[in-house]
Write a structure and sequence with these properties.
The complex is a heterodimer of chains A (136) and B (210). Chain A is an all-alpha fold and 136 residues long. Helix content of chain A is 61%, strand content 0%. In chain A, helix 3 runs antiparallel to helix 4. Helix content of chain B is 29%, strand content 8%. In chain B, the strands form two sheets. In chain B, strands 1-2-3 form a three-stranded parallel sheet. In chain B, strands 4-5 form a two-stranded antiparallel sheet. Classes of the chains: A mainly alpha (136), B alpha/beta (210).
């Protein structure tokens, strides 16, 4: 047993780093992927330059352009959900750093933040009055 | 372009006998192109049924490398205009052709795509798609058999094989400065406008003998 281990130690080089293989594989993979792209780019550059145009660059591919007016229609009631999103999602993002650095904040920043909170609390009150917070 | 281009024919034969094959870059490029023609997946009328039959197991267009029908013009090399082109459909056909990447080819399949066919007298029928886009191969027939489509494909392959993209006489679709897009016609109040693209097609001139 001891003899075998000594033999194996002799076969292995002293500064054997197992992660080199990963690096070599990564490099080979990158070259394997990028070479065809590079060749295609070179081919296009020197032999077949692109011929763009308004139709070819158009977003919609087949047939007719989509009809209709420019402005999309949406329900005006959607603003209530917008308010709720601001109150419960956007506000929460600001609340955590605000709470974490509350004691170290200058007076102006604290007042500004409190105004921001007040506006959103008004929105919360509005949504409450409208009955959005009750589960139907 | 490459040294093989100016290579002595006898030397090339001698090398190929020894198992060394020397090709021009152009030939290699064209060999790849002609064996991987991707058609655009669209049909207009009954000729499309024959086109579908050609892609199925019995006729098997994949023997010629053209079985990859693409639903997007961005990935297609070949437009098979299979069927009657109505005047309402013509702008869309030209638009699809414009959106295909160069080099691109067109097969006009059947009498309708060539000239309007049996519906030529119809007020709503375009009298040949070659009035708006350059057609490379036309297949007569009403409808043409799948074998005829395969023959047209082989004809196109032979043309692609002989195309030069550099030098004094480049192929029209490969030359620098070739038009990337053709004008898309518009459905006007009474007829399609303009009635044809004069760069691609001119009405036949009647020559009267005195």
């Amino acid at each position: 047993m001891v003899g075998q281990r000594a033999e194996r130690k002799q076969l292995m080089p002293a500064n054997y780093g197992p992660y080199w293989f990963i690096l070599v594989l990564l490099a080979a993979g990158a070259v394997f992927c990028l070479t065809p792209l590079l060749l295609a780019w070179l081919w296009a550059r020197f032999f077949m330059p692109g011929r763009p145009g308004p139709t070819k660059n158009a977003a919609y591919e087949c047939g007719l352009d989509s009809p209709g007016a420019d402005g999309p229609r949406f329900k005006s009631e959607y603003y209530l959900y917008g308010i709720l999103f601001l109150v419960f999602d956007v506000e929460a993002v600001f609340l955590f750093p605000f709470a974490a650095s509350f004691t170290g904040l200058p007076a102006g920043a604290a007042v500004g933040m409190l105004v921001f909170l007040l506006l959103l609390i008004e929105g919360l009150a509005w949504a409450w009055v409208k009955g959005l917070l009750t589960w139907k | 372009m490459t040294p093989a281009g100016s290579m002595d024919e006898g030397l090339r034969n001698e090398l190929s006998r020894q198992g060394v094959f020397v090709v021009k870059l152009t030939d290699l490029y064209n060999w790849g192109r002609k064996n991987s023609i991707w058609p655009l997946n669209f049909g207009l009328a009954c000729c499309a049924i024959e086109m579908i039959a050609a892609s199925m197991a019995r006729f098997d267009i994949s023997r010629f490398g053209a079985e990859v029908f693409r639903p997007s013009p961005r990935q297609a090399d070949l437009m098979i205009v299979a069927g009657t082109v109505t005047k309402k459909m013509a702008p869309q056909v030209v638009r699809l052709y414009n959106q295909m990447p160069d080099p691109k080819y067109v097969i006009a399949m059947g009498a309708c795509a060539i000239s309007g066919g049996p519906f030529k007298q119809g007020y709503n029928v375009l009298k040949g798609i070659d009035r708006y886009i350059p057609v490379d191969v036309s297949i007569p027939g009403c409808p043409p058999k799948p074998e005829a489509l395969l023959h047209a494909l082989i004809t196109l392959q032979k043309r692609i094989e002989s195309e030069q993209f550099a030098g004094p006489n480049p192929a029209p679709r490969l030359a620098r400065g070739a038009p990337g897009e053709y004008p898309v016609p518009r459905l006007g109040a009474h007829d399609i406008e303009p009635p044809f693209n004069p760069e691609v097609w001119q009405p036949p001139k009647l020559v009267r003998e005195e």
